[in-house]
Amino acid sequence: MVRGIGASSGIAMGKAFVIPTWEWDFPDKLIDVTDLAYEFERLYDGIRSSKDEIRQIKEEFVNVLGEEQTQIFDAHLAILEDPVFMNEVQGIMQRQYKAAEVAVKETIEKFVNMFDLLDDGYMKERALDIKDVGNRLLKHLLGALEETLPPKDEPYVLVAKELIPSQMVHLDVNQTLGLVTMMGGKTSHVAIMARAMGVPYVVGLEEHLATPIQTGDFLIIDGDEGIVYINPSETVVKHYLKLKESWRQEQDQLMQLADLPSQTMDGLSYNLAANISSIKELEQAIVKGASGVGLFRTEFLYMNRATFPGEEEQYEVYKEAAEKLAGKPLVIRTLDVGGDKHLDYLELPEEENPSLGYRAIRIMLDRTDLFKTQLRAIVRSSSYGCIKIMYPMISSLEELRRANEVLQEVKEELRQEGASFKDDIPVGIMIELPAAVMISDLLAQEVDFFSIGTNDLVQYVLAVDRMNEHVAHLYDPYHPSILRMLKMTVDNARKQGIQVSVCGEIAGDVRALPLWIALGITDLSMSVASILRVKSRLIQSLSTDASNMWKQLSACTSSVRVLEVLEHYAQNEAVSPERLRDVNESGGANLDVPRSTSSCM
Ligand code: PEP
Ligand code: MG
């Protein structure tokens, strides 16, 4: 049994498919001059097999990815035919009597270093291609048996050193039983996507793994406990089969709550909205009774393609989403790339600290061409439903005002073109930087709503990279500093009478529910998989103790204490009929809370 970090709940059981990292370690072998001809023969065989394999992969993926996306494989074939690359390999073998694999390895290193030194994104990409193709060739030369593709018809548990969001987009949910990665964090975007897909996921195994997991190993993943079993005993398998069955039954029971109102027992209504990144997820959200979409992460429309999506393409997606929601709110967040979300075709400078770097609104305010294209698509789709615009990573009034100026320009252009759209689209911002919290009194005067993004807020307040498994134990959304920031934001929003919601991952954590009651937050937006679990807890809760609760929570000196107080309230909410009668007789909930996602203003 190996312990990691549980990043997406549920239990998965099945055979591992390990994505090879291809980091070879072999001796610097010399050959005899009489073996040279044989060594060349080996090299040519290796090249032939590599080419066959690349052609086969291209054929398999062309239907899934399309012709344009599979051009990369043509580039790989071209490298294996490139005379400069091949002359270098042959030269090392002939002049230095080195074995074929040693010559290939040295050639890869030489070209990769050369291209990497150039300050040119295109050449850096080529360096990656050479590494990829060279590694494939090495695999054939060394006779390594790793498979490079997951089996097509068999389900598998995907194991990798690291996954990136653009790889996740291609995973077939029906085949991917679970995910295990050596690196990564609980609030990384890969983890968020795994939760959205309902795929159990354990991250951060690296340090605890004595021997690497092999393709074909039988794995059990416990995404709640963050545990992975490798080739477990029959007793463990039996235990998990039982757990899996009760987990499935719990899901069935939760589904029965989908159409019930989201209300505490004493009548305080909540809006439990969904965080989505695609129409597919929106459909799931609707099935689970979401009150709307509190966060549409639009960056996923921009991934796994060769160019930016155009205005028309985006417009169609936003319009479809608005129509599917039939009047329920749809908060569209403008492009939030950078950090762990990367676009192959958007050349961004190499950065020491990507999370503190060039990302989100910072890019869009420079690349107003991209910003305007997206805003035009959003504004045009506003006639089809209840659309709201949200800017990510706002740190100052200037940024907000500049973004709004671009929005005004877009509206003016559309007006002159005679396009129809709603003129009063609500505009809000993510509160996810400490700076935004500290000036939330000023920001609140110029926006229609706040949405608190605790995923980034926690990383910036505590200086803990949300992607880094080595500091994952310090990533703490219940830290007293975060509670104070939430309170400050809510108070400032309330003073201006604007709406405030929470859309970070903590919104979907059932343990936090008494905290929302204490703060008077009734709008939450969470990953689709969490909606019914939160609802199930909510409908057993009472809201009458809010101010007392906050008094206790704000006096906590540590997150351990915060969690104890929350737990205490959660237990007290297993309400007795007598207590409920008392509450009803005293008039029930009377919180004066501005709502966000339920109304279109
Ligand atoms: C957040 O930062 O809390 C958030 C919701 O945005 P993302 O996770 O996409 O950065
Ligand atoms: Mg964020």
Describe this structure in words.
The protein is α/β, with parallel strands linked by helices and 601 residues long. It folds into 3 domains: 23-142, PtsI, HPr-binding domain (Enzyme I, Chain A, domain 2, Orthogonal Bundle); 156-252, Glucose Oxidase, domain 1 (3-Layer(bba) Sandwich), CATH 3.50.30; 268-455 and 499-586, TIM Barrel. 46% of the residues lie in helices and 13% in strands. The protein contains 22 helices and 16 strands. An 8-stranded mixed beta sheet has the order 1-8-7-3-4-5-6-2. Helix 9 (279-287) runs parallel beside helix 10 and helix 10 (311-325) runs parallel beside helix 12 (368-381). It is globular. The two termini are 51 Å apart. Residues 588-594 have low confidence and may be disordered. Phosphoenolpyruvate is lined by residues 295, 297, 336, 432, 453-456, 503-504.
